[in-house]
Backbone:
């Protein structure tokens, strides 16, 4: 983790520790999980090397007079990861290094277009104190019919991205936890 992101990680860790006694109250779930999202949002993105076909096509087609503005999807939803952390504080909030590893994963992004990111966001709902997941994290790009491409190892130019058999990393404990919310 770089020096820019570390303070945000430390603040998120301390905040969750300080407020975990209120997690059982429904009105605290969104504000506490949002606190983590806000900290992740201000960190340096950890690029996975994945880009959607839509974003790659926009990069190729964009007019050089108007810079292309990609959207970065935190493919492991920081707000949902915060729920997992708060539902198991003895695993994630006792040791800062354990939390830091999870927080670092939360900063991982896939480059998308804005419409694609909106489509992905629609695969979850957090209304009326009820959190719902309509597609598991490890299938959401497929369900949304968004093709992922990847840059070859060592390549920095997105234009060189191609189809790949490589997969994003999905922590098994997250996939298992998420099953509680699948509808």
Residues:
């Amino acid at each position: 983790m770089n020096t820019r992101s570390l303070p945000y990680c430390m603040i998120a860790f301390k905040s969750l520790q300080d407020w975990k006694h209120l997690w059982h109250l429904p009105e605290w779930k969104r504000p506490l999980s949002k606190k983590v999202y806000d900290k992740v949002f201000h960190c340096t993105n950890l690029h996975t090397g994945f880009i959607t076909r839509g974003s790659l096509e926009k990069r190729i087609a964009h007019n050089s007079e108007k810079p292309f503005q990609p959207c970065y999807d935190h493919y492991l939803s920081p707000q949902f990861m915060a729920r997992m952390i708060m539902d198991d504080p003895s695993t994630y909030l006792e040791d800062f290094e354990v939390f830091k590893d999870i927080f670092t994963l939360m900063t991982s992004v896939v480059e998308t277009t804005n419409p694609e990111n909106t489509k992905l966001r629609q695969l979850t709902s957090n209304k009326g104190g009820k959190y719902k997941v309509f597609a598991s994290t490890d299938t959401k790009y497929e369900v949304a019919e968004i093709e992922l491409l990847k840059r070859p190892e060592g390549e920095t130019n997105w234009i060189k991205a191609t189809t790949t058999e490589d997969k994003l990393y999905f922590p098994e404990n997250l996939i298992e936890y998420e099953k509680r919310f699948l509808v």
The mean pLDDT is 93. Residues 15 and 76 are 20 Å apart (CA to CA). Strands lie at 46-52, 71-74, 108-112, 124-127, 130-133, 148-150, 162-163. The longest helix spans residues 26-41.
